[in-house]
Amino acid sequence: MAFHFTARHMRLAATLLALCCAAGARAEDASAPPPQQQPAVTPSPEPSPSGQKGGAGRGNAATAPAAAEQHRLPPDSTTKQTLALPERALDFTATAGSIRLFDDKGEPQADIAYTAYQLDGADRSSRPVTFVFNGGPGSASAWLQFGNNGPWRLAINADQVTPSASPDPQPNAETWLDFTDLVYIDPVGTGYSRFVATGEDVRKRFFSVDGDVSAIGVTIRRWLEKYDRLLSPKYVAGESYGGIRGPKLVRNLQTQQGVGVRGLILISPVLDFREFSGSSLLQYVASLPSYTAVAREAKGPVTRADLAEVESYARGDFLLDLMKGEADAEATDRLADKVAALTGVDQAVSRRLAGRFEIAEFRREFDRRNGKVTGRYDASVRGIDPFPDSSFYHFGDQSGDALFAPLTSAAVDLTTRKLNWRPDGSYELGNGSVERAWDFGRGLKPAESITELRQILALDPKLKVLVAHGLFDLATPYFGSKIQLDQLPAYAAPDRVKLVVYPGGHMFYARDASRQAFRSEVQTLMK
Fold first, then answer.
1. Is 131 helix (H, G, I), strand (E, B) or coil?
2. 191: three-class secondary structure by DSSP
């Protein structure tokens, strides 16, 4: 999960795009790709046996050592763990620690926290290792670790969890640890990861599309070197904004870090901001199947197969009527009435909006008669509208907001108690300041990763990609990815790039059946 992008966020991103120019970070031994010069972020020349450690606070080069030690992260903590599961037990080594990144002058920049789980007794040269991160930007990896594939899992089904729910994770029968080691990475500003250097320059480098990718690429390379895993099959898994980060990261690893990747797993990703905001008509095409899925879920179980005719209509007659414009009253009424019939929204409301529902409008109008609003992460979940008489939207997201407290408590408790790693400072599950400061692109070109997805697939014919979505996700509707993936060339055939869609929302893995089915797909990918 992540902060993910609302219409407001899209507008903010568009403004940033017009004002900012992304500055990336790179490894000390990598040259910056043209045409953009990237400031350097380099790993420590020699990692200590306990791992890189440090903390926030540096005024200038002369005061860096003393200030950096003031709030340094503690030495890495390695513990032996046993996971008791039905019909099996997993013995593994858990490490919570950090890797320090330096600039090309050897000055510390940031400490990147990670949590790694490695199965005991496995052959490191043949044992896969998967690097996992969430999105936002500004989201820690706890969503995937404690909701999906880590050794311990917290029940986060959005229609059941409340902020006061127990934060005690239980052994996860669907952990991926059976078939891959797992390394969860928290980009700077999330989890316990923090800046060592101060000032706006370092923030601008790391809080940018390119700088973020380069920093994570260096972190992965340093982890592989530190734990003697360069020969292992390597996989990358990212959620939400991870759809932008993931393909770019694989490209960076291939061409800048000297690290090959076997497979890329994208969970509820956004792949391209160019067509799904502002005045683009494709935003309505992308969301219509999910709106319909929400309406049908209210009456009974629904699968993607049940939406075949809706998908066909969305990219056919619906799109054609959209393109005719609102000046064509006949086309507008026709599509508005069809949208009302598919979604269950009042026909008069649909006509007033010309059948063009933005996400927030659908969330409020779908069950407004009962004073309820749908979730954004999972629109099958409905919560109470705290201001039903307001002419504007003043509601949060029942399907996401309720998870922050139990997930934060679970992450802190497991890290400090079970893994025996006790950093000072606050744990950031979702850091809004990161998202607000983010540079999403260069000039007038919004961030997208389809370019890098094409490049990494063309460069390595053995690379495979798995894209997974939830039917009821309005943050990153699955049909948006379907539209983008359909534009890939023939070399990205379905046997290499596979889209799977499950009942559920942005965190579809909160549902037992969806999590189990997704795990099987990932295991097949790694065979």
1. strand
2. strand
471: closest CA among 274, 306, 358?
Answer: 306
Q: Residue 233, exposed/middle/buried by CB under 10 A (0-12, 13-18, 19+)? A: middle
> Which segments of 397-448 are extended strands (E)?
none
Contacts of 95 (CB under 8 A, 6+ apart): 51, 76, 77, 78, 79, 114, 115, 116, 118, 419
**Cis peptide bond upstream of 388, omega within 30:** no
Contact between 93 and 49 under an 8 Å Cβ cutoff? The reply is no
Would you state the structure tokens that stand for residue 243, as one six-digit string? 């759809």
Cβ atoms of 119 and 56 within 8 Å: the answer is no
Neighbour tally for 63: CB within 10 Å:
11
Measured between alpha carbons, how far is 136 from 188 in angstroms, rounded to an integer? 12
DSSP annotation string for 15-82: HHHHH--------TT-PPPSSS-----EE-SS--TT----EE---STTTHHHHHHHEEPPPPEEEEEE
Give the CA diameter of the chain.
72
Are 329 and 335 in contact by the 8 Å Cβ rule? The answer is no
DSSP count for the chain of H helices, then E strands: 18, 17
Query: Angle CA(114)–CA(120)–CA(123) in degrees, nearest 5?
Result: 100
Cβ atoms of residues 109 and 199 within 8 Å: no
pTM for the structure as a whole = 0.85
Q: What is the mean pLDDT of each run of 10 residues along the chain (527 residues)?
A: 45 40 36 34 36 33 49 92 94 98 93 98 96 95 95 80 78 97 97 93 94 97 97 98 97 97 98 82 95 94 96 97 96 97 94 92 84 86 74 59 84 95 93 92 82 97 97 96 96 95 95 96 96
φ, ψ of residue 182 to 5 degrees: the values are -130, 130
Q: How far apart are CA 180 and CA 352, in angstroms?
A: 52
Q: Pairing relation of β-strands 77-85 and 88-102?
A: antiparallel
CA–CA gap between residue 526 and residue 177 (Å, rounded): 12
Q: How far apart are CA 196 and CA 107, in angstroms?
A: 9
What token pair was written down for 116?
């790694």
CA distance 324 to 367: 29
